[in-house]
């Protein structure tokens, strides 16, 4: 595999790479996969885009996107945020009749309400194998929104163009948010297995002494252990348990801290270090946030 990362900074750069005509707008484009003619062999290469990228595929032969028996098989959407690295593989866009891609630069939405909440769409940080699998009805709705964006994109640009394009992008993302919630719901039996495995990993990390040795594990650490992105694992836990992964870890640490405070005479600083905190004051601050009292107050009152 090549270690080189090819940076595709602009929408125009993407059009050149895909063998498409120059974009009609410098910050956004809709392209159809049947029209692409790649200008290089993508196999083994890594790319980082400087813009948001959404790709709908109706090809059912590519298994890289993580579809399982719980999912719809009428189409797949994948999402990329600026700077995220992807390996496209050797599948050909021009074989994907009906597929489309939406590319939009952060500058397009920077001054809009969407720019303020774009990071709330956490699926932009999912891995390729955590794609969204949609039904025929959902395909029609999302493709209809893509066609509205395309219509605005191909008309002469006026003072309304950008607002209408951004509004339709936001609506498309809101529907994708709904459909991801549905996908989490239909996968609940599978997801419960992952929750159990995560809880065991967290407990094993604690009992093996790795908290004191390596510090508090990150969201990405648990994602890697379960072969998924940290963002996807955190969202899955939130749907199944009501807690994000970070909150789950913090609650676990505080519950164990309570046991250690009441079950030993160890100094607060020693307890903090044993739970993976680099600085005892960070432990005390989190403990007070969770319990309403400092570790010393909790120990004295109990």
TrEMBL record:
Residues 196-301 form the HTH araC/xylS-type domain. The keyword Transcription regulation applies. The keyword Transcription regulation applies. Pfam families: HTH_18. This is Helix-turn-helix domain-containing protein. One of its GO terms (molecular function) is sequence-specific DNA binding. It comes from the Bacteria.
């Amino acid at each position: 595999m090549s270690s080189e990362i090819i940076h595709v900074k602009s929408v125009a750069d993407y059009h050149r790479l895909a063998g498409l005509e120059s974009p009609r707008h410098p910050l956004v484009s809709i392209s159809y996969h049947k029209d692409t003619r790649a200008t290089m062999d993508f196999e083994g290469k890594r790319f980082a885009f400087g813009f948001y990228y959404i790709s709908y595929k109706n090809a059912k032969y590519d298994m890289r996107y993580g579809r399982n028996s719980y999912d719809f098989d009428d189409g797949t959407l994948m999402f990329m945020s600026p700077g995220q690295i992807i390996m496209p593989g050797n599948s050909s866009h021009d074989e994907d009749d009906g597929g489309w891609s939406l590319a939009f630069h952060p500058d397009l939405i920077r001054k809009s309400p969407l720019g303020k909440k774009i990071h709330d769409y956490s699926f932009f940080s999912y891995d390729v194998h955590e794609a969204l699998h949609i039904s025929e009805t959902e395909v029609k709705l999302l493709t209809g929104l893509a066609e509205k964006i395309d219509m605005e994109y191909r008309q002469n640009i006026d003072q309304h163009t950008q607002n209408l394009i951004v509004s339709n992008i936001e609506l498309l993302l809101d529907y994708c948010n709904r459909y991801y919630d549905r996908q989490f719901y239909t996968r609940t039996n599978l997801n419960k297995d992952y929750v159990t495995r995560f809880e065991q990993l967290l407990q094993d990390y604690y009992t093996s002494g790795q908290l004191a040795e390596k510090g508090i594990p990150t969201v990405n650490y648990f994602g890697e252990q379960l072969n998924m992105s940290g963002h996807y694992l955190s969202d899955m836990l939130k749907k199944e348990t009501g807690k994000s992964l970070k909150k789950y870890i913090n609650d676990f640490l505080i519950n164990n801290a309570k046991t250690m405070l009441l079950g030993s005479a160890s100094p607060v600083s020693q307890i903090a270090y044993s739970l993976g905190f680099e600085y005892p004051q960070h432990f005390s601050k989190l403990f007070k946030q969770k319990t309403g009292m400092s570790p010393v107050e909790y120990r004295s009152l109990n």
